[in-house]
Amino acid sequence: MIDRVGVVAKSHLTAAASHLTDIAAWLRARGVEPVFDEETAALAPDVREASTATKDELPTRVGMILVLGGDGTLLGMAARIAQAGSDIPMLGVNFGGLGFLTEVTLPELYPSLESAINGSAAIDERLTMRTATLRDGGRVEERIVLNDVVVTHGALSRIIRLSVTADGHLVTRIRADGLIVASPTGSTAYNLSAGGPILHPQVDALVLTPIAPHTLANRPLVVPGTTEIRIEPDLEGSRDDVYLTCDGQFGFPLKAGDVVVVGRAERPLRLIQATRRSYFEVLREKLKWGEA
Length: 292
What we know:
18% of the residues lie in helices and 36% in strands. By secondary structure, it is α+β, with helices and mostly antiparallel strands.
């Protein structure tokens, strides 16, 4: 039984204000304490007297987190849960656009929340990835990501050259706009837009997808989830800008000699499933499969 629920809404999501008040009352009526992140509490005057915490503090203070927003809001909290070394589950309610991760609709909010706090909800464990950049003999900017790690050129750069290895074996040297390393969860994000395959969340695998490769011989590649991927941009004597981006939430420029290492993280992310829909139903709904 969960006795404290963290509540996080998308930044400046005024449409959620009235729902926050109702959620707080609904939780308290069941003996559950709502804990709002500070920005979320500011959206609804009626909940400002409730317990609050920063987004970084929430994963260590509650038994689950309810996210109201889009996939970007959920990804931001997923990173914080991972960095805190926590394994609390998240329930995502869609106030955004497509919403592959925040798949629960508003009418499904309270039935899904009920099953989550009483322990009867199905939990979907999603593979997460750990990435670090090797630089000057050390490791910098280590991150846990749910969707993807992307190495790409800057806004004004030309095609970049990348060397890619898997478990120490050379995979390819490519000339492209960049490279995506995606988890099964991330396979329906940037990877899908770049022509990569969809991986079912229960598949233990990673997918490497070139972005606009210079040659058609460079195609997406699926490798085991245990594989350690190394990406080394060729920046010697180049004026090109190359960036590393994690889940579309965080990024920084790479330097000559940097090596980006990507592999499976120790802990999966635990997502509370919607009460009625299967993964394939979500795909049909979001991608409009089967429509004339």
